[in-house]
Design brief:
Layout (H helix, E strand, L loop, with lengths): L3 H51 L5 H10 L6 H8 L22 H15 L7 H7 L6 H16 L3 E5 L2 E4 L1 H4 L6
Antiparallel strand pairs: 1-2
Helix pairs in contact: 5-6
Length: 181
């Protein structure tokens, strides 16, 4: 008859082997997670870079440098077109016929472009969480609420419609008959 201590040692050995196997599996999964997270971040960065490259260029700084370096007459027309470009943190004007999207800051332009794309593809309203994901942001409450605040401001100024609570589309007047900007 086997001893009680011998039986306990066998069970302890079996439990230790199981723990070792699980630790190895956890280490393998952790390593895969690190690789997957790195790849995901690289894709987010790549999409962000492409967005920067394809997005409109902010000419206000270049113009300001040129204005100081080479003051000349005949630049009044250029000055008025550049001064119409929005600066970050600028107010959102009320939408009216003929008002260009460029009067909005880049954050607002980005929201309008995303909704114009959805309108063109007939995809319907979008939530702020979905917008956060579209923009490559973490869908954490702070980011989502910042987008919601901007979207609500665009609704109040006539650029967007809120078809249902928290679901945004381009305003009919902004979208126009041809599908948007």
């Amino acid at each position: 008859m086997p001893s009680v201590v011998g039986l306990l040692e066998q069970r302890e050995l079996g439990a230790r082997r199981r723990v070792d196997e699980l630790r190895e599996e956890a280490d393998r999964v952790q390593a895969e997670l690190v690789v997957a997270e790195r790849e995901w971040k690289e894709w987010v960065i790549a999409r962000s870079r492409v967005g920067e490259v394809l997005g409109p260029v902010d000419e206000t700084e270049d113009y300001a440098r040129t204005e100081r370096a080479v003051p000349a007459q005949g630049q009044a027309g250029e000055a008025s077109s550049v001064s119409m470009a929005a600066k970050p943190k600028s107010q959102v004007p009320v939408w009216r016929e003929g008002l260009e999207v460029s009067v909005l800051s880049m954050d607002y332009q980005r929201i309008l472009q995303a909704l114009a794309d959805r309108h063109r593809l007939r995809q319907g309203p979008v939530t702020c969480q979905e917008m956060a994901v579209l923009f490559g942001l973490d869908a954490v409450p702070a980011k989502v609420e910042a987008l919601r605040s901007k979207a609500k401001r665009l609704v109040a100024r006539g650029w967007l419609d809120e078809s249902a609570p928290g679901r945004f589309t381009l305003a009919r007047s902004v979208a126009g008959p041809d599908g948007g900007s």
